[in-house]
Amino acid sequence: MDQKTTIYDIAKALDITAATVSRALNNNPKISEVTRKLVLETAAKMNYKQNRLAQSLRSGKSNNVGVIVPRIDSNFFASVIRGIEEELRPEGYHVIICQTNEDEMRQIENISTLLNAQVDGILMSISNVSEENDHVIQNVVDKNVPLIFFDRKKKMDGVSSVTINDLEGGYLATKNLIEQGCKRIAHLTGDQSLEIYDNRNKGYQKALLDSGLPFNPDYVFQVKSNVDAGRQAVDRLLSLNPPPDGIFSSSDFAALGAIQELKERGVRIPEEFCVFGFGNEPFTRFMELSISSVDQSPLEMGRMTAKVFLEQINNTDKIKIEKKVVLNPELHIRKSSSRNLSS
Amino acid sequence: MDQKTTIYDIAKALDITAATVSRALNNNPKISEVTRKLVLETAAKMNYKQNRLAQSLRSGKSNNVGVIVPRIDSNFFASVIRGIEEELRPEGYHVIICQTNEDEMRQIENISTLLNAQVDGILMSISNVSEENDHVIQNVVDKNVPLIFFDRKKKMDGVSSVTINDLEGGYLATKNLIEQGCKRIAHLTGDQSLEIYDNRNKGYQKALLDSGLPFNPDYVFQVKSNVDAGRQAVDRLLSLNPPPDGIFSSSDFAALGAIQELKERGVRIPEEFCVFGFGNEPFTRFMELSISSVDQSPLEMGRMTAKVFLEQINNTDKIKIEKKVVLNPELHIRKSSSRNLSS
DNA sequence: TAGGTTTGTGCAATCGATTACATAATTACA
DNA sequence: TGTAATTATGTAATCGATTGCACAAACCTA
Predict the structure, then answer these.
(1) What is the span of the domain harbouring residue A45?
(2) pTM across the whole model
(3) Is A107 contained in some domain?
(4) Do A98 and B89 lie within an 8 Å CB cutoff?
(5) Which H, E and C letters describe A161-203, residue by residue?
(6) Chain B window 323-342: which residues touch A at a Cβ cutoff of 8 Å?
(7) Would the pLDDT of B301 be above 50?
(8) What's the longest Cα–Cα distance across chain A?
(9) Domain count of the fold of chain A
(10) Which residues 95 to 154 of A reach strand C, CB within 7 A?
(11) Which residues numbered 183-222 in A keep a CB inside 8 Å of some CB on B?
């Protein structure tokens, strides 16, 4: 009853061979119109569904692509995945999701099981950079399985990547704060082993330098990307002498925490203190005191990542393409950094 | 160079047959310890990776599970998927993501391609209810492919589902508004063909009834789940005579829009007007005027959906299990519906 | 030492679809 | 009418792993 009909069943029904059925179904020009029609009709009648597994085994293409992210329940990653899925579905690919939870072992496991599953490519945002990881990732490259990094990448020969210009994002956000009149801008950064945070930090420093403002290392805190971390950072920042009058946070969540803490302490935003976040999380624009933030165009990033993969998989040359796409960050300037400047 | 080593390669290297290699790798007790060790060592040396496609074709199990959602970039669905992935990964399953974008044709397409790909099960939140869809979904059941609905389900024999008690959620939220002293509570609902909205609506009406408050059809609007829809609804609600003094919205986004519009019109929340949302989106607790909302425990829903699938797939009896899991909604009462009651 | 077990491997089919090559049937053309 | 060209289909191998059955060797047991 839940028997699946195969081309053999169709063949038997029509007293022909499976080869003919296969050819008819694949529009092979060598098949007569009569037979083709007969096969198609019978296939429909018998409710035939192609078995992709068999096809994949034969062709060596699974039509599956693995996507590895730290977690899926973050607006950013979910949006990237949406972009990837929308771009790959029309091309006949299925998207397999793997989460690492920022755990190195899981990342290694995921890569390994994806390779076992014969995925046609791996699109990933790395969680961790370590020797062992390097080894496994290099393995993917050696196996000639297209690998594309997005957002959180890793410097590797022969690996394409799609990122945003984090340095520019950090630069522009900081510049905005400076233009608003902030003189002592603090920075909340993240795990420095990840390029994204390092680059945002560099952008921040470059902006200070370009504007002739001093760089004060005491104003830079490495925090987790959550609300509490932002609150705690403010707690410590306000105890400094002099305290800062602005924050560029690499995380919207930390920026929110900072704002909450500042408000509780009676600091007026943006009049006395400006805040700029990063990530353009939905809540940043929903707040009554909306939060300025750098948009990473995750949807576009996902689409682009998928496109780079498609280019790579359809590339028949023996020369490997190494493509580095860098998207431009976009500033969303909102109330948290908008003083009414009259000058 | 990117040649993949197969069990035949290992067999050749050791001058034995592939059958023996396969058995050794699968810890078949009929293999001598000497051979087993030799095979394992050689496999490691040759960097052998099992080809899951071949294995799947033979066994008829792909170890892939398809998850169909309207969209992935929503906090709710992303969290459910997180739960599903975390529960299924340890069991050796991969999760394939499909989005329908609420488009019926795409839903049909997705189901179809997932079946072609020989997934071991389909977990879905339906986008649409139509004749054609019924047909395709029934097809899944007939093929004996485990099918589980989550959140947005459909009444179908033999299909398990995991939902929350939406009626109870609507009831409790409305009750809360009543307890706060609201006398004329409006309701923003969604597509009535979806059970979830219908049930929340029913819960709302039941709460009114139980409390002896009149039900006024003019106070019920069907809206899209976005901010603008909430604003427009308030625009119309306030023109009624008498206008309502509270809103229970089936969507957090509409609730947010409603609040924004009310504030702009100078209506004080929660003093003059209370609002209760549904979904417990992250922003609801981040707002300065935090929004009361019904939590759907999406993570738990995802986990439970995966568990029900596992039970079903591991069930060897011929009797089909039809399991209906209903999770309890949890109220998160926040400022938007918290008057300081002294009585 | 003959006959019966046990143990470890090999043989070959199977899962379902595809395709190079072979071949039969038909048509074309001189 | 005979031969070449064309057309449509069949044969069988292949993708990689698994497994029922067969079988040889070694080990027991009376």
Answers:
(1) 7-50
(2) 0.94
(3) yes
(4) yes
(5) EEEECHHHHHHHHHHHHHHCCCCCEEEEECCCCCHHHHHHHHH
(6) none
(7) yes
(8) 91
(9) 3
(10) none
(11) none
